[in-house]
Amino acid sequence: SVSPTRSLTELWFCIPRFHGEGYQEGLAEGSHAGMAEGRRHGALHGARLGSEVGCYLGFALTWHCLLQKCTDEKNSKKIRALDSLIGMIQKFPYEDPTYDKLQEDLEKIRGKFKQVCSMLNIQSDLRIGTERSSLTF
């Protein structure tokens, strides 16, 4: 027969093993949950970024087409600014989330968009639709 003291001693020596196994299981579960959360966050953030930049491109292309009909110097400057915005958007690295200047380039695009809006006398907050479903950046 095993004495109660001996069984407690044996249990005491098992604690590090259980602790190690529990740690490994927790680490694996946490890593899996973290990857899933990271994917969801990345997909959401990527969708918002794509929507924002796509909106800028649609805006720029539309205004470019509208201003093509007028050939005065004022519109020529606006068209050059729109061409610059369109070029910046076309060079934007959508497929590379590891691009180290992604935020910097996005800020430049936003700045150029605001400049173009100012030249066109348009508010740059882009509220589209009803207030509840408005698209803002």
TrEMBL record:
Domain annotation Essential protein Yae1 N-terminal: ranges: 22-60
InterPro entries linked: Essential_protein_Yae1_N, LTO1_adapter
Domain of life: Eukaryota
Family affiliation: Belongs to the LTO1 family.
Protein name, entry field: ORAV1 protein
Species whose genome carries this gene: Acrocephalus arundinaceus
Encoding gene per record: Oraov1
